[in-house]
Amino acid sequence: MTLASDQDKALGALSQTARQMLSLREEVFAEWMRRIRAEVKQASTLAEPILVNTLPTLYDNLVQAISDCHTRDGAGVNATTVGSEHGGERARLTNYDIAAVIAEYQLFRWTTFDVLKQNNVSINEEQIRIINCAVDTTIREAVTAFALAQSIFRERFVAAVAHDLRTPLGAISLTSELIRVSSEPKHMHELAGQTLSHVARMDRMLHDLLDAVAFQNGARMSLRLTEFDIWEVVHEACAPNVTAKQHVHREGRSVRGWWDRDSMKRAVENLIGNAVKYGDAARPITIKIDAYHQRLILTVHNEGNPIPPDQIESVFQVFQRTKLAREGDKRGWGIGLPYVRSVAESHGGSIGVDSGEDRGTTFTIDIPIDSRPYQSAPVLSEKLE
């Protein structure tokens, strides 16, 4: 089993060079973490699961891509949201800037090449080109997502200020106008009291908003974190979603961690429900549970029509559905997947999707095994009030 974003259904198609590269994954990341902590100051104190992020998935996607007979070719490395989810997490969970995001990918590239060379793994010019093109494209996707996240935070602040201050400002305007035209001292006194009350309300609101910005406390799900085995939760989530004709296979292993049991169960139920709805009913749904560098990697895979690349991100937007879903007779994809994203982000992680004609569709929940330290991190998926 690999950590590739498609569950690696074609593991046997890996070339000898790709298998050698796969065997060196741990060595690559040990060296990369050493370099990144030494050279990028924003990374020096990051906890390991946050530092590693989605890069192991990118690495294993590269392993697939350099194998000539694998279904994932060079272009297929970028038919995923691995880069954009990485950029979004960096914006939400770290004090990175764009330069730091770019630097860590550059270090990832050269660390990979250096470790392969040190272990006498020879890669040809075409394989080098594939890796370089994939990393460069992923950098662009990560930077775009990072900048978008930063923009969302700014827009959310402006929108919150405008919305929350509009009501008391309107009331102040009205009472001021009434004071201006009133000739009764008692009435003017009452109106002045109302005006002062609205001013005090605005002052409290501004203090609350400034505190929110200072501590970066975006609106988020209220989680009740307990320790449990995600394998058991996945088992509970399977039953309500699967018809008599559809089978769900569980692969991987038990992973115990600190998460919110109810929200994680509902998130898995949503992913299974979507796999049942949009997948090939004659093919099984596969749920894989794995852990790497203190991160839970939970994937739900189904065969069937892929999500078009230009519509992948829309599945996570509230009330948005893909063109395929709108034109079919299936109801859904309006709220369920945005909810899954909220769950993943509130746990300090992310939700990604990989979809292709020959690979099927795989959704990945990638979160820290212990989410307790990350409960103050802002999320992007909340709806503005």
UniProtKB/TrEMBL annotation:
InterPro entries: HATPase_C_sf (IPR036890), HATPase_dom (IPR003594), His_kinase_dom (IPR005467), HisK_dim/P_dom (IPR003661), HisK_dim/P_sf (IPR036097), Sig_transdc_His_kin-like_C (IPR004358). Residues 160-371 form the Histidine kinase domain. It catalyses: ATP + protein L-histidine = ADP + protein N-phospho-L-histidine. Its EC number is 2.7.13.3. GO terms for molecular function: kinase activity. The keyword Transferase applies. The keyword Protein biosynthesis does not apply. PROSITE patterns: HIS_KIN. Keywords: Kinase, Phosphoprotein, Transferase. This is histidine kinase. It comes from Noviherbaspirillum album.
